[in-house]
Design a protein that fits this description.
Elements (H helix, E strand, L loop, with lengths): L1 H7 L1 H4 L10 H11 L4 H5 L5 H4 L7 E3 L2 E5 L9 H11 L5 E9 L4 E9 L4 E6 L2 E6 L10 H10 L5 E4 L6 H9 L3 E6 L2 H13 L5 E6 L11 E7 L8 H7 E13 L2 H11 L4 E11 L5 E9 L1
Parallel strand pairs: 2-3, 7-8, 7-10, 8-9, 10-11
Antiparallel strand pairs: 1-2, 3-4, 5-6, 11-13, 12-13
Helix pairs in contact: 1-3, 7-8
C-alpha cells in the first residue's frame, strides 16, 4: 500500500526550483522509487543482452559515492550509462566509481571514474558515527558495520585494546563510542590515519582512541593489551607472532583470515603462535569469492 500511496501523490511532493519550474529530476527519482525499480531496470534496453546479464545486482554506497565492482571490461564502455542509472535511483549519490581488487600492503582498491563528480573524499555514517574517508587512498568496506558493532559490544570498560590494522579507524572508533577504554589504533597508511583523526573529532566518544602511523607487526609494546583486533585477512599469518606478543596472558584476539578451510586455518594460527594462542571459535563473516570466505577467529593467549 505504501508504494501505491507514493505513486498516487508524487505531484504533491514535487519541489520547485526558484524560478517556479517543476524539479523533473526529483519527480523522476520518486517515480523510480515508487515503482520499485533498480538501476539495472533502467539499463535493460540500453546494454546488449549478454553484457546486461553481467551487471552486478548490488554495489556499495559510501557517503555520497557509489562503488560498483565490474569484472567485465566491456561494461566499462557503458560507464556513463551505468553511473547515470545509479544516480537516478539513488539521488544522494554524486559520484560513481568502478572498483577492482584491493592490492598492496595498504589494501587500496583500483578505481575508475564512471560518472558524476570527480572526487574520492566523502563522509559516511555507520552505527551512529560519521567517518571521513578517501576511497582512493584507503580500503573502505561499509558492509562490516554490524560486525564492528558486535566486536565493540564485546569489549569491556577499562580495557587496553590494540587495533593492529586500523586504517581510518572503523573498529577503534566504534569501540570508543560505547566503551570507556583506550584503543591504540595503528596503521602504516598515513592518509588513513589522517582521516581517522578527523573522524575522532567528528564524533562523541566515551573512550579514547590513540591513532598511530606505525607497523603493528614491529610494535615495541608487549604483553600489555587485553584485546587485539587483527583485520588483515589476506596476510594474517604474517602477523600471528605480533598478535601473540602484544597480548597479556588470558587476553583475547579477534583474528580475521581469508580461507576455504577454516578449521585448517585455525590450526595454522595456533602453530604460528608457538601454541601460545588457543582458538576457541570461528565465525564466517562474509563471502570473498565463490571459494573463499573471511572468517573471524577468537583466540585466547595461554
Amino acid at each position: 500500500m505504501d508504494l501505491i500511496y507514493l505513486n498516487l501523490h508524487v505531484p504533491k511532493l514535487v519541489k520547485r526550483n526558484p524560478s517556479g519550474c517543476r524539479d523533473l529530476h526529483s519527480e523522476k527519482h520518486r517515480e523510480h522509487l515508487a515503482k520499485g525499480l533498480t538501476y539495472r531496470d533502467l539499463l535493460s534496453d540500453t546494454l546488449p543482452r549478454d553484457l546486461f546479464e553481467k551487471l552486478p545486482r548490488s554495489f556499495d554506497i559510501v557517503g555520497d559515492i557509489a562503488i560498483i565492482r565490474i569484472d567485465e571490461k566491456e561494461l566499462l564502455r557503458y560507464g556513463v550509462e551505468i553511473s547515470s542509472a545509479i544516480m537516478k535511483i539513488h539521488k544522494r549519490v554524486r559520484a560513481v566509481y568502478a572498483r577492482g581488487p584491493a592490492r598492496g600492503s595498504l589494501r587500496i582498491q583500483q578505481l575508475e571514474h564512471l560518472g558524476g563528480e570527480r572526487r574520492t573524499e566523502t563522509v559516511y555514517k555507520e552505527n551512529g558515527l560519521r567517518f571521513s574517508v578517501d576511497i582512493a587512498k584507503m580500503y573502505v568496506n561499509p558492509r562490516l558495520g554490524s560486525e564492528r558493532l558486535r566486536i565493540a559490544m564485546d569489549i569491556k570498560d577499562g580495557e587496553f585494546v590494540l587495533d593492529m590494522f586500523s586504517s581510518y579507524g572503523a573498529f577503534a572508533i566504534n569501540i570508543a563510542r560505547i566503551k570507556r577504554c583506550l584503543v591504540v589504533a595503528s596503521d602504516i597508511n598515513s592518509d588513513a590515519v589522517t582521516h581517522m583523526r578527523r573522524s575522532i573529532y567528528m564524533n562523541k566518544l566515551l573512550g579514547e582512541v590513540m591513532p598511530l602511523v606505525s607497523d603493528a607487526n614491529t610494535m615495541p609494546l608487549r604483553g600489555v593489551f587485553t584485546t587485539v583486533i587483527a583485520d588483515n585477512p589476506t596476510n594474517i599469518l604474517e602477523s600471528v607472532e605480533a598478535i601473540t606478543n602484544a597480548l597479556v596472558k588470558g587476553g583475547r584476539a579477534y583474528i580475521y583470515a581469508l580461507t576455504d578451510e577454516p578449521e585448517a586455518m585455525g590450526r595454522e594460527i595456533e602453530r604460528s603462535s608457538g601454541s601460545r594462542l588457543a582458538i576457541k571459535s570461528y565465525y564466517k563473516v562474509k563471502e570473498y569469492s565463490p571459494r573463499l570466505n573471511i572468517y573471524r577467529y577468537l583466540a585466547i593467549r595461554v
